[in-house]
Each structure stands twice: as C-alpha cells, then as structure tokens.
C-alpha cells in the first residue's frame, strides 16, 4: 500500500471536504522590489549557521556561481577561530535557485563539496525573480561543531516501498546531539515520489470537478508521510516545526489550507491512536553513525509514534507550520515538506497572539528553544518595519541565538537581519492564514 492507515484517512478527509476549497482567488506576489540578502553568521551551543552566501561575481551561470559559493564556504569553514572545520561538518543546507532549469548544473558543482559518506540533508527550491538581481544561486549552511562520531545520518540506498531513495548528494536526515540526551534532526525536503518507481505520484481516478485538489492532496499527504517515516527512523519524538513549499498561483490559498489541515490532523491526539507494527517496519535503508560505521545496514522497527505525546508538558497547541509559495520545486512538484524533528524527554509548547502576530514557542527540558512568529498580512509597510525592529530587539539581545530565518515577500530593509533570508511569493501560517512574513528563531537558553 502506498499510504499508511493514518495518512490514507487524512487524505479521505480532505477529499470529502472538497467543497470548502472552492472559489479561491489567485494570490500573486506582493513584493514591491527585490530583497537584499546579506551574508550572515550565527554561532552558539555547537551550531554554526552560515547564511545567504552568493557569488554573482563568479559569472552569470548557476554552475559558475555555485563554484564561487563552494570556494567561499570552504574559506569560511577553514577560518574557524577554534578548530578548523570542513564541509564534512555541514549537516543541513538550503539551496535557492532562480530557475529549477539550473538544478543539474548547480548540483554537479555542489556534489564536489562532499566527498565522504553522510552528506548534509538538503532542501532545494527555485525562487524566480524574488532572488536579488544577478543572483542565480544562494545557499545557507548549518554546521555541527560537535564530535563527528556523535552524528547520525540516514541514507535510503535503493528503491523500496518505504521511502524515496536519495537521488542526489544529500542524506534524508542528519541528527546531532544538543544538550544531555536531546537531539535535533534535520530532515531533507520531501517531494511526493512513489518510492517503488521514483516517479511523481498522481491520482489515477480523479473526479473532474476537483481534479487539482484530488491530485494535490495525494501529493501533499504522500510527501508528508515520507517526512514522517524518516522522522520515525531517526527517533523523532516531536516536530519543532515544518515548512510546506508550494507552487503555482492558481488555488494557492486553498493549497496552503490543505497543507495546514493535513499537518493539523497528523499532529492531533486521537483517542484511537495506536501503532501498527507491520506498517512501521522498514528495511531498505542505511543509518550511518558518525565515521565508525559508514557501511552499516540496519533493519529496524519503529515502536513510538510521531508525535509522541508522552514528552509533551502542555496541551492544545499544534506544532508551528508555514506554507511558502515559491516559483518551482524539484521534479516539477507542487509541494515539498521540510521539517525539523526533535528527540527529547520533555517539552512545552505555547502559542499567543501578539501585536506582531501569532507567536508559537517550544522549549525543551534542556532549554532548547524554537519560536515561529507569523507577521500579519494586514500590516502596512511602515508597520512591518516597526514589527521587525521590535522582534529583533526581543530575540537577538542574547547570544543564545543559533538560527534565524525569515520567509518574506516584502522588500523592507533587512540590513539588520541576523540570519537566513528566503524571498518568496506568498507566506501562509496557522489555519492557512496569509502572512506578510514568517520568522523562525532557534536558540539554547542559559
């Protein structure tokens, strides 16, 4: 079977409620100009975030610019003030292209960065003309400053029923320790490939009335199932958050709401929740533990569900979610899920409406923090600038910050933004509400 029972059930629910997704207006980009993306670095608690690296001076072709980026990241890593680092220490990368037509040529250069097993997990999207002028590739990297032997990587080696095989120089997931026994798990972007054939899945018997919804909802559910299964293999207890990259302006508001509804359902506690041991067994994958067992192949059974509500010390809040409209995705997909998982004994999750918008914060027992701020669409340009200044003042006064990313359609001043920038066509948040921007902060509290 293509879908596990829980995912098949949520797909049926979406299709049965198809009438609620009708009559959606187009939602074009609201950007008033190109966004400036300056190189930035954040470093704390064993994590080094190197952001917005570009090389337009290297040439006009994406391959030339990727080669320039590769040179820059090597130089930055080798100049580390304590122990020189290398690309072997990168655990996650985000690659933004102007056009997905440049994917193959960019990839040929990208692969040269990673010569050893366990390349980083990766998300690749095309942002079109939302990228700065002259920039055809922009990359950001997360570097693990800890012991290499403590890392765990997941690589799906061959076609199977379980999850798509790796089709490029990346791992499906990388897990690193933070504090105590807690681990953070970076999951690669997941598109809806049918694992056995490695072809894009489509509904073979759609209704004419809702052809787009039938196809899209199947792909949204399958790609999220890929993320779920990979998370289970990596012992994820809880999702800190997820981003659903989506494409095409037509029905974009409905697509965002479908993605939210699927996410909400899969993260809600059900009275009849149980684990199907047969569905939770997989066997065609390699887990590589650091540098000591590079060729170890393992069979495993997942015994704990995701989410694991036993670690939750609060109630009533769904892990944060953003839907981000971009120009294109790999293999012409219309959705790609990218998630951040966490393995821990306990965490609290709280949400509140503030002057800036909805804020959802997760804090673990070891004081790892993850915050998503949804800036409301209704804010004017001046209000957006003021909101951003207030948010930065509240979240960057401490050196505990390890990660900062903004998904935005607006070209408001970002000279003071401390981290990664993802320019996009539209952003959607909790319950599919349209946003002016979505902001993510990660940190380790004292």
Automatic annotation (TrEMBL):
Gene Ontology BP annotations: protein histidyl modification to diphthamide
InterPro entries in alphabetical order: DPH6/MJ0570, RutC-like_sf, YjgF/YER057c/UK114
Xref: CDD domains: eu_AANH_C_1, eu_AANH_C_2
Source organism superkingdom: Eukaryota
A GO term, aspect molecular function: diphthine-ammonia ligase activity
Pfam family, one: Ribonuc_L-PSP
SUPFAM superfamilies, per the entry: YjgF-like
Protein name: Uncharacterized protein
